[in-house]
Amino acid sequence: MPMKGRFPIRRTLEYLRKGDIVFKNRVKIMTVNYNTHGELSEGARKFVFFNIPQIQYKNQWVQVMMFKNMTPSPFLKFYLDDGEQVLVDVEGKDHKHISDHVRKILGKTEEVLQSEAQAKMQESNPANFGPKKYCLRECICEVDGQVPCPGTTALPKEMTGKYRTKMAAAQE
Amino acid sequence: MFQVIGGRSVQAARVLAPRSAVLVEAVRGRKSRTDPVAKSKVGRIKVPPPVDPVEMVVLKERYGEYQMIMRALRLEFKEEMLRKRYEEDTGSLAEERARQEAQEHRVLMDLNHLENQRILKLRIVRVQVEKEEADRKKFEVILQREQEQQEIVKEKEKEILKLQEDVKNFITLENLDQRIEEALDNPKNYNFAIDKQGKVVKQTMLQ
After folding, report:
1. Which of A48, A142, B72, B97 is the most buried (most CB within 10 A)?
2. Given CB atoms, is A44 within the 8 Å cutoff of chain B?
3. Could you tell me the keywords of this UniProt record (chain B) (predicted)?
4. Does the complex come out with an ipTM higher than 0.85?
5. CA angle B6-B11-B13, nearest 5°?
């Protein structure tokens, strides 16, 4: 069977790419403490179930840990690279509010994300020819409608250098 | 300038060189150093390609100039990149940006702190309410228990009173004879009859 789990949409790339929380570079570790039963932890449970996959997809280098039934009330804790710890209390909150709040305090803003995307686009110019690692094409012979590579198919006689020099020499 | 084509470069050079020329240095080819020379190559003497001194001088000069210019350009570009990187990391603009970010971060942390305080207040209130509720329930349970105890005591007292009343009608050794006399004098008839309509008839034949 292709679908696994209760909400298999969480496993689709489209859903994961839709996540909009991209943490600032300073955030290194994210910890979620929540309870498996109880009305107050409901928002936190939903947050863990629906939003954590998106967050981890967008922040592949941030360590995300989940702790269950360790404290009476649920909370999030972020550890930044200068040792600062940010505590976010999520008791009784809805998962949408939690994700909005987290994005507001520790996420990159829209304009920052856009400028970063622009910078990345500028680095890689699609018009450049070069190694496959850095550019799209290596030689003009790879483009549709251009002269095919003389390494694979022989050029017509009129276009070869030796024929042209022979003709030029014969004419003089 | 030239693309390196791996092991084919030597063979290509051999093809392009004139017939009489012979390669000077040893080449990694099919034969090892212990294999004998081929019959067709027995008397072969390798001669390097002839060099025209005038041409060489001119070429050397031109190549030198060209390479110097190229090297200078490369170093210029490298320096530009490094300077840009340095400016970005530790320039005045970068400091400004860092300060701005620190400021914004402080603001956001304060916001978060306020939010936490708000939830803390709500939590304190809720915990208080729950505690009061629990206390009240406990109190009620205690009251209930006490009431039940009291009722049991009352029941017991009633029974004791009833027993005290009954004591008066007990048959003891003293009034044994008297009670026997009374019983013999008043014969009790426990027989009765009942018909289908439910009418009770106590009057029966005395035996």
Report:
1. A48
2. no
3. Coiled coil, Mitochondrion, Ribonucleoprotein, Ribosomal protein, Transit peptide
4. no
5. 100
A79, β-bridge pairs: A29, A85
B129 touches chain A (CB under 8 A): no
Q: Tens of pLDDT along chain A (172 residues)?
A: 688 999 999 999 999 999 999 999 999 999 999 999 999 999 999 999 999 999 999 999 999 999 999 999 999 999 999 999 999 999 999 999 999 999 999 999 999 999 999 998 888 888 999 999 988 999 999 999 999 999 999 999 999 999 999 999 999 8
Question: Is there a contact between A52 and A14 (Cβ–Cβ < 8 Å)?
Answer: no
d(CA A112, CA A109): 5
| Residue A33 to residue B40: CA distance in whole angstroms | 85
Q: Which residues of A touch B111 (CB under 8 A)?
A: 104-105
DSSP A112-140: HHHHHHHHHHHHS-TT-B--TTTSSBSSG
Which residues in chain A have their CB less than 8 angstroms from residue B116's CB?
87-89
Token pair belonging to B75: 């170093």
Are the CB atoms for A52 and A66 separated by under 8 Å? yes
Which structure tokens are listed for A60? 């592949």
Beta bridge partners of A78: A30, A86
